[in-house]
Amino acid sequence: xxxxxxxxxxxxxxxxxxxxxxxxxxxxxxxxxxxxxxxxxxxxxxxxxxxxxxxxxxxxxxxxxxxxxxxxxxxxxxxxxxxxxxxxxxxxxxxxxxxxxxxxxxxxxxxxxxxxxxxxxxxx
Length: 124
What we know:
Elements (H helix, E strand, L loop, with lengths): L1 H19 L2 H4 L15 H14 L6 H14 L4 E9 L6 E9 L2 E4 L8 E6 L1
Antiparallel strand pairs: 1-2, 1-4, 2-3
Helix pairs in contact: 1-3, 1-4, 3-4
């Protein structure tokens, strides 16, 4: 329950930051120092964020979920990296972006379509 309450507050903050701040500032939300002691499992944190994201009254995108997962993991002692990727849409030529989070090179959130995107930037 504590993880879901934390995820709710952080999703609201991340959503506001992504909506109101320039990208270079909003992306820093997840870049907190890695805690010295592991407190929660990766699966528990990702599960809490995904559960809360389905229930909030606003639409959450991969960037908000990625920022929150990264922040919660790093605060729990896990060295999570947020990846920002891009690709060209083959139908209309538009640019599409996607965010995913990895731990030790393995995607823990947003990874189901990460292979389709070029990794443009990574944020520790």
